[in-house]
Amino acid sequence: MTARRIRVGVFTGGASNERDISLATGAQIARSLPADRYEVVLLDPLALMARNPALSSARRAEAEALLRSGGRVDPGHQLPRGLEREIESASGALVPASRVITGAAEPPDVVFIALHGVWGEDGRIQGLLDTLGIPYTGSGVLASALAMDKAMAKRVLASAGLDVPRDAVVRGAAGDDLARAAAVGLPAFVKPVASGSSVGAAIVRRPEELAPAIEAALREDDRALVEEYVQGRELTVAVIGNDQPRALPVIEIVTKHPFFDYGAKYDAGESEEIVPARIPDEVARRTQALALRAHAALDCRGMSRTDFVWSADRLVVLEVNTIPGMTANSLLPKAAAAAGIPFGELLERLIGWALEDAARRRR
Ligand SMILES: Nc1ncnc2c1ncn2[C@@H]1O[C@H](COP(=O)(O)OP(=O)(O)O)[C@@H](O)[C@H]1O
Ligand SMILES: [Mg+2]
């Protein structure tokens, strides 16, 4: 007799500005989990948010449409190049997550969270799933919330001995806020405290660019992080595992853009991701050790990916991602492939770790 298949609810779509990438990821996860062992349904948590006043009215209208149609929502904007088909195919297969939450549909054995940014990567969905008693991939509430708040994460990382950029956190672009931001010095890097995919981020080279950059960041979040601009080579290190996490090979990011912005991240051909990074072995080992330390400092589970800039003798941590990009071509899956772990197997391991943690909690 064959064992029952594991029911995986892939949480995909959602309300963040990374909705499209999430949908592409959901489609690829659904396709890559072996059908003889996994039964996959794409669940869209946007459906839970139709009455959430924190969302824009356009997003709430999308949520309503999702509930009415039982699936399809039109993006109403241009999709990242190369991923259009996958986003389309996922959009056509969405099931409102509200059906599972309300008990109208059978709950999955495990949720694969393929959401990024706020309302997905930041602990809130994790808290909901904890409340429902449904196991899920990746980090729990605290690590997720901490990592998403770049300002708070930096405090914890600094106290664990990691080097992070000097910064100021501001809520406005005038008066005392502007003065504190200017004190960071130029060039500076401005980004929202909690966001992702470089949305609302900019390099500031001239004094008159500072206030507009802060205003742009504040369109994404109510706090902006103004950091010293760290010039150097961009590296990123993924860590996977539960009780014995391991660092995957270091990836070097070379972009044609002035920094690793949204287009550089998602439009084909705009950036090169070189694995293993062309850096001395000693630097690679040091970067991997720092990524493991960052993962542990924030109490991550299952996976994380820490972004660095290597500048002269400094290895500066920019941020820790608790749900890094998970399309087959994304950085973490690429690093895993370089370490001999194909995409499908990586997904299975992440699901296995989620079930392992849940089994341990069961009384
Ligand atoms: N302090 C900084 N100095 C130089 N470049 C930065 C700095 N902070 C961010 N960047 C650039 O912006 C990109 C996005 O920043 P990051 O902190 O990784 O946020 P996210 O990836 O969540 O949008 C980085 O990959 C890097 O290219
Ligand atoms: Mg990043």
What pattern of helices and strands is seen along the backbone? EHEHHEHEHHHEHEEHEEEEHEHEEHH
What count of structural domains? 3
Content of β-strand: 15-25%
Distance between the amino and carboxyl termini: 29 Å
Helices and strands in order, then pairings?
Blueprint: E1 6-11, H1 19-32, E2 38-44, H2 57-69, H3 84-91, E3 95-96, H4 98-101, E4 110-113, H5 124-132, H6 141-148, H7 150-159, E5 167-170, H8 175-183, E6 188-192, E7 202-204, H9 210-218, E8 224-228, E9 233-241, E10 246-247, E11 251-255, H10 262-266, E12 271-274, H11 281-297, E13 302-311, E14 314-321, H12 331-338, H13 343-361
Parallel strand pairs: 1-2, 1-4, 2-3
Antiparallel strand pairs: 5-8, 6-7, 6-8, 9-10, 9-11, 9-13, 11-12, 13-14
Bound molecules: adenosine-5'-diphosphate (ADP) and magnesium ion.
Structural overview:
The chain is of the alpha+beta class and 363 residues long. It folds into three domains: 6-136, 3-Layer(aba) Sandwich (Rossmann fold); 147-162 and 230-341, D-amino Acid Aminotransferase, Chain A, domain 1 (2-Layer Sandwich), CATH 3.30.470.20; 167-228, Dna Ligase, domain 1 (2-Layer Sandwich). 37% of the residues lie in helices and 20% in strands. The protein contains 13 helices and 14 strands. It has helices at 19-32, 57-69, 84-91, 98-101, 124-132, 141-148, 150-159, 175-183, 210-218, 262-266, 281-297, 331-338, 343-361, and strands at 6-11, 38-44, 95-96, 110-113, 167-170, 188-192, 202-204, 224-228, 233-241, 246-247, 251-255, 271-274, 302-311, 314-321. The strands form three sheets. Strands 9, 10, 11, 12, 13 and 14 form a six-stranded antiparallel β-sheet that branches. The longest helix has 19 residues, at 343-361. The chain starts with 5 loop residues before the first strand and ends with a helix. Adenosine-5'-diphosphate binds at residues 165, 189, 191, 196-198, 201, 227, 229-230, 234, 259-260, 307, 309, 318-319.
